[in-house]
């Protein structure tokens, strides 16, 4: 039986204080919920807009226990949450999405094995635990290929491209000698992503797939609709649904896919709201942040139909300085004090009448 | 010369802690601003989502001085702010919109005299300071008519309808014997409102007029577009623009108008974001709350073009209990603990493809 929906005024705990947590907290406030952010750094973007904040380490058992006692449900805004913290919290309060999604998302080998195990195609890959294994994998998968650490990579960090003739030893050193995966080259036309949600009752809804463009390993632009045929858009949504159901997931997920001659390959998924879904704030009645809050509170999922075409641009580093002079767009800034190079400071969304 | 725009991270002071202040604070957070709510009651809806809150009376000089020192600009979310408080603040920090709009909006006589003085039509009216003046005004304006207190009326409070044969003495007692205005009857087809904004640089933009339906003196529903010809919609927008310019206004204003056989009459205006503009959250790229924040921060006004038709319904009193089960709509709740009868607890917006 599905539990009762959490009433307005319930307290949502958010692990992580970055911009995704900030936008979750704002969406929660719109639904009359209270928020409590748990984050080691002070004055974090999400903490600025939450009702309460705990500044503590993720391995602080007393702070975790007090946090669990202060909230009605816990969610997270990043996939590298320590599983021990999740376990400590889950003993006291529902954690949504659950441990299973985190386990799969934190380890590239586990993720690919999970995806292949439910019948989804990925790029060819090989587990790599040292320079010898890497040399063997390079021989098998050919060049170019990409060596990625199994854990803790994001925004292009923790990975190195290996062209023909690359040295296995140097590559192994370049990624710090950590357990890794080698991914074979995939000649893809474009990268798309699907932001989808699964409710506490098992209902699944998806936003229209967006097309992503990266610069320097960081998402630069998402355009919706993606330039793909309707049949492929449907395939992408079905893939997201399969992942959600297999994980018995509650909340929003972001699934990145490569469009290839042979169909769709899953690149990776993030068990959280996703940068490539920010366009939903301006392109849909209910955005990914509200959808996530609805799901974890046991509310029916919202109407995520796209009313407009949309283009989302990230404001990286010093580009945020342009924000006060941007016209004709929706601007969202994250409350970060220092505009360091490569740091996501905000984003801009433009819309146009729906074309397809 | 127009002052420089306030940079992200600036501190916006909001007088008043209700739902309008709450939605202003949320919009400010989206633009990376900090908010500080000043409100006599504890745990007010706006204070829940602000970065800081002062709980103090509006006539507390020390609290006002400390508030002024803690913010970069001050705005307000209700029109009955004490002018003395505004003056105390304005000596230290910009207050936007300014005193002039408040003076006109706080007194129905001043408001009507101002409107007529800039060439705008209102219902016929007469100043009433006692039962004798009321009897004379009733004889002149005929029946039915509406007697309203000059000050502090809202949501149908402080007013009484006078039908043929009504007693001037009883009516005077019914509104508490306070200085008043008698408004002659206007046979109107519908009530519409225009939400418009004026920037620090004098630029004016308006959202499409909405059509309002009241129940028990409280706004029940706003539908956009209003069922009026384009020429009348343009007239309504021009009227709002004339008011904004005459007041040298900075921020968002809500102007209520009657559609009559003879054209538009101005009912009243509110020098703030307005309940009948809530639909903009779901019908426009930039909503009235962000538009207000942009204006008072000296940012260029946003794109308020309507991408969809919209219907906004208020959730009054116990109706808020339905919120967690509402489907296919955008829901906004105000964080109020007690769902008293007649209290605005939240609202619901539905959209449809743009029809006109």
What does this structure look like?
With 356 residues, chain A is an alpha+beta fold. In chain A, 28% of the residues lie in helices and 29% in strands. Chain A contains eleven helices and 17 strands. Chain A has helices spanning 19-30, 45-49, 61-70, 83-90, 99-106, 108-117, 131-141, 168-174, 230-246, 280-283, 288-296, and strands at residues 11-15, 34-39, 52-55, 73-76, 125-128, 145-149, 159-162, 180-184, 188-198, 204-206, 210-215, 218-224, 251-260, 263-270, 308-316, 330-333, 344-353. In chain A, strands 9, 10, 11, 12, 13, 14, 15, 16 and 17 form a nine-stranded antiparallel beta sheet that branches.
Major beta sheet of chain A, specifics? 9 strands, antiparallel
Largest interface in this structure? A-B, 47 and 46 residues
User: Looking at the structure, what is the overall shape of chain A?
Assistant: globular
Judged by helices, strands and strand pairing, the structural class of chain A is: alpha+beta
The overall average pLDDT of chain A, rounded, is: 95
Helix percentage range of chain A: 25-40%
The gyration radius over C-alpha positions of chain A equals 20 Å
Q: How would you name the oligomeric state of the polypeptide chains in this document?
A: homodimer
| Share in β-strands of chain A | 25-35%
Given as residue ranges, the uncertain stretches of chain A (5+ residues, pLDDT < 50) are: none
How far apart, in Å, are the first and last alpha carbons of chain A? 39 Å
Number of strands of chain A: 17
In DSSP terms, counting alpha (H) and pi (I) runs of 4 or more, how many helices of chain A?
A: 11
Task: Spell the H/E element sequence of chain A.
Answer: EHEHEHEHHHEHEEHEEEEEHEEHHEEE
């Amino acid at each position: 039986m599905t539990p009762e929906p959490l009433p307005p005024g319930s307290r949502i705990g958010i692990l992580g204080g970055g911009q995704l947590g900030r936008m979750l907290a704002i969406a929660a406030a719109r639904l009359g919920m209270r928020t409590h952010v748990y984050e080691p750094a002070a004055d974090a973007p999400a903490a600025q807009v939450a009702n309460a904040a705990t500044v503590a380490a993720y391995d602080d058992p007393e702070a975790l226990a007090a946090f669990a006692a202060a909230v009605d449900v816990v969610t997270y805004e990043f996939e590298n949450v320590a599983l021990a913290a999740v376990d400590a919290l889950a003993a006291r309060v529902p954690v949504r999405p659950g441990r299973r999604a985190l386990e799969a998302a934190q380890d590239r080998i586990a993720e690919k094995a999970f995806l292949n195990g439910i019948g989804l195609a990925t790029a060819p890959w090989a587990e790599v635990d040292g320079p010898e294994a890497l040399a063997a994998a390079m021989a098998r998968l050919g060049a170019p290929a990409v060596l990625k650490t199994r854990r803790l990579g994001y925004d292009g960090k923790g990975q190195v491209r290996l062209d023909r003739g690359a040295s296995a030893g140097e590559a192994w050193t370049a990624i710090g000698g950590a357990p890794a995966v080698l991914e074979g080259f995939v000649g893809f036309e474009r990268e798309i992503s699907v932001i989808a949600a699964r409710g506490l009752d098992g209902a699944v809804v998806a936003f229209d797939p967006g097309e992503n463009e990266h610069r320097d390993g960081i998402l630069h632009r998402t355009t919706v609709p993606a330039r793909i045929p309707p049949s492929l858009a449907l395939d992408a949504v079905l893939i997201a649904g399969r992942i959600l159901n297999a994980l018995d997931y509650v909340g929003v997920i972001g699934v990145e896919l490569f469009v290839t001659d042979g169909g769709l390959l899953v690149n990776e998924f993030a068990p959280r709201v996703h940068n490539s879904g920010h366009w939903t704030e301006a392109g849909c009645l209910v955005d990914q942040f509200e959808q996530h809050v609805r799901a974890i509170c046991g509310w029916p999922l919202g109407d995520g139909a796209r009313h407009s075409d949309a283009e989302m641009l990230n404001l990286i580093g010093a580009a945020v300085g342009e924000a006060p002079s941007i016209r004709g767009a929706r601007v969202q800034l994250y409350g970060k004090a220092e505009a360091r190079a490569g740091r996501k400071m905000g984003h801009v969304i433009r819309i146009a009448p729906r074309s397809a």
